[in-house]
Amino acid sequence: MMVVFLILLLGLVCAAQEAPAELDPTQITGDWHSVLTAADNKEKIEEGGPLRAYIRRLECNDTCSSIGIKFYVKFQDACLLLHSAAERKGEVYHVGYMGANFFELLPISDSALAIYGENFDGVKTTKVTQLLAKGDGVTQEEIQQYEELNKERGIPTENSEDLTETGKAKRTTGI
């Protein structure tokens, strides 16, 4: 009898949970620029760090089951333009870059998007976030929502980096 009760309870809990909102491809696809980044291991996102990336464009297919990502990284004083494709499994995207990466896209507004990801480099998992903007920048309210995301995910506020000053590529190489 206890097993039947537990199965019924589990069924009710699952039914009561809201289905995650589907991403709107028109809200995701477009030109973006990285504004802020944060990580629980700050060394990974500091200038010259392996996870310091400057996102420039996202291309979401019709169902957002895959996303094309165009971004810059700095390597030996040169900015490299990289293209990558991420595949969705459930609500999480998977992509290989500096290890295995799993990330979520979290729309904040029509012109701001947060990314929460986890990078496993073969030894350690690092939690990383980015705040992206379309257009000129982000509002203070959008920054507050981003900071709340970091707090919820255990990323200290002092581990945040402003990417707007260092996100200007001087020399670029496309890969």
Automatic annotation (TrEMBL):
Residues 1-15 form the signal peptide. InterPro entries: Calycin (IPR012674), Lipocalin (IPR002345), Lipocalin_CS (IPR022272), Lipocln_cytosolic_FA-bd_dom (IPR000566), OBP-like (IPR002448). One of its GO terms (cellular component) is extracellular space. It comes from the Eukaryota. Residues 29-166 form the Lipocalin/cytosolic fatty-acid binding domain. SUPFAM superfamilies: Lipocalins. GO terms for molecular function: odorant binding; small molecule binding. It is found in: Secreted. Keywords: Secreted, Signal, Transport. Its main location: secreted. Residues 151-175 are annotated as: Disordered. It holds the Pfam family Lipocalin. Belongs to the calycin superfamily. Lipocalin family. PANTHER family: ALLERGEN BOS D 2, LIPOCALIN. This is Lipocalin/cytosolic fatty-acid binding domain-containing protein. It comes from Cervus hanglu yarkandensis (Yarkand deer). The lineage of its organism: Eukaryota, Metazoa, Chordata, Craniata, Vertebrata.
